[in-house]
# Entry
Amino acid sequence: LEAKLRNAFTGRPDGEIYAVVGDEGVGKSSLVVSTWLACNAASILIMSPAEDLLAPEATGDFESFLIDKLIKQTGRQRSERASERWRRRIKGWRANPAPKNVRLTMVFDGLNQPLKADWSRWLDHAASELAKMGGCLVITTRSTQLTHLLHAIASKNANVPVSPPTLLTGKSRH
# Structure
């Protein structure tokens, strides 16, 4: 599974949206983080709960939303100076949108409720904007939401199914 997800963090992505799909508690979020940690030359990783898509700032300008996330995740205070620093960096990324390795990966974790129409448009828009910067979008969702998700988004996607871990039966392997 890590091999399938690796291109969301390093190298060239296989899709604009990676959907990490599985039942509750199977380790979707853990797979995302462990895969990112295992990558050499990994992208900048932004983890965000899916509820952030409902926040008023998510419905505005995507670049401002992204900059707010980057500032918050780096532990800085929101200021015009910090925002301008990220704006310059994003402008540079857009000038070279096809880097050898993914620059930035945004993860929305726990997209488990039925998608609202604006969520699908927002996800497509976010995936498109990230691709223009050499970035990628990853979502985690339950298996029950996959069909609805695939019908709702227009972006090219790569699905990463996560199964429950195999339990040891106590039988020896002789």
